[in-house]
Amino acid sequence: MDTGKNDMNFEIEPTGHPGCRKTNGRIGQVMFARKNNTELKKSRQNRLWPRLCGLFAVCGMMFGLGLFAEASAATYKIGSEDVLEIRFWQDPTLNAQVRVRDDGKIAIDIIGELQASGLSESELEKEIVRRISRINPQISQATLRVLQYNSRKVFVFGEVQDPGKYTFESIPDLWALINEAGGATDVGDLSRVRIIRGGSNQGQVEIVDVSGMISRGEANKLPSIESGDTIELLRTFGGVVRPRVSGNIGLKNLYYIIGEVNTPGTHALEPNIDLLDAIALAGGPTGAANLKKVRVVSKDGDYSQVVTIDIEGYTKTGQPARYLIRPEDTIVLPTRNGGFLGLGRASDFVALATGLSSLFLILNR
């Protein structure tokens, strides 16, 4: 029924809401509803973020627990010769220190013998409490810790500052072990570190160029050390003081050879090349070479060291030990007839000049 009034014309009084103003009825209601919907969405979003942050926190905790479980799986396992301390706070008279026998067992006065080797500290604690609680029900807890990790031992001998037996909860790498023994002596040859394997690989021998690998930034490639292994630092040839490992850094990976060789000059230095290899790679000695007095000049910081080696005797007896060539070593094969620097022919001086020119060009690149 038409009353002559338009429904769109009635007025809504302001309610005090900041989004509401006095306007025509239905238009005002629509605008107010839209404003309320926008604010409702914002309110829901504001409440949603804390919930999401809480969810992320829970996921992070679960991930952390997973990592903890993985770390726990790698817990130290007790072994033969380990020394253990067992404490009972509920009855200190039962406290004891025991050594794990070769058969993997320990003996405790009240409960007798039980297997310890192969168990973690917490596993052995539970077994001790289980056994002792049968005799003394008041004992419900025990604390166990390893005092000496003798089952994981490594022997370090030769030219190190403090040789002997070393034990670890976790055996470090070869370079760390050498430093644990005080580092190499002045005549310790880090280019020929001998590893004598124990355990399941007993008797196997490896020779490692530790100084070369450290200088090349390849410490992560050093062979791993296992319990029972023996590390021996050999003495340098002729007792020559070797440069520090850091002294090798920055040297060119090449060597120079002059004198009575068929191809004198500069040659690329490959890993694990000894003096005899270096001469062979240079075409071998000439018929006039004095192989009893081959000289090697090695750089040591601002100075150089010279060692004379009887290659002729080495090829007959295999003695002394191999002399490994280092970066920028210079090898001199003198002539039997003597001469300046042991060089007896005009071609030798040409080769020497060529080598020095090559060195100059390389250093000025």
Figure out the total of helices: 7
Number-wise, the strands total 15
What would you call the structural class? alpha+beta
Pattern of helices and strands? HEEEEHEEEHEEHEEEHEEHEH
The CA-CA distance between the termini, in Å, is 104 Å
In angstroms, what is the radius of gyration?
Answer: 39 Å
Fourth CATH level, the homologous superfamily of the largest domain: Outer membrane lipoprotein wza domain like
Mean pLDDT: 77
User: Going across the major beta sheet, what is the strand order?
Assistant: 7-6-10-8-9
Instruction: State the helical fraction.
Output: 25-40%
Q: How large a portion of the residues is in β-strands, by DSSP E? A: 15-25%
CATH class of the largest domain: Alpha Beta
Low-confidence stretches: 1-24, 65-73, 358-363
Report a brief summary of the structure.
This protein is of the alpha+beta class and 365 residues long.
Defining key terms:
single chain, alpha+beta, wza like fold, Outer membrane lipoprotein wza fold like, five-stranded mixed sheet, disordered N terminus
Give the helix/strand layout.
Blueprint: H1 25-73, E1 83-87, E2 96-99, E3 105-108, E4 112-115, H2 121-135, E5 143-148, E6 153-158, E7 164-167, H3 174-180, E8 188-196, E9 205-208, H4 210-215, E10 230-235, E11 254-259, E12 265-268, H5 275-281, E13 294-300, E14 303-309, H6 311-317, E15 330-333, H7 346-363
Parallel strand pairs: 6-10, 11-15
Antiparallel strand pairs: 1-2, 1-5, 3-4, 6-7, 8-9, 8-10, 11-12, 13-14, 13-15
Task: Please characterize this protein's 3D structure.
The chain is α+β, with helices and mostly antiparallel strands and 365 residues long. It folds into 4 domains: 16-65; 83-148, wza like fold; 154-239, Outer membrane lipoprotein wza domain like (Outer membrane lipoprotein wza fold like, Roll); 251-363, Outer membrane lipoprotein wza domain like (Outer membrane lipoprotein wza fold like), CATH 3.10.560.10. The protein has 7 helices and 15 strands. The chain has a 5-stranded mixed beta sheet. Strand 11 (254-259) and strand 12 (265-268) form a beta hairpin. Residues 1-24, 65-73 and 358-363 have low confidence and may be disordered.
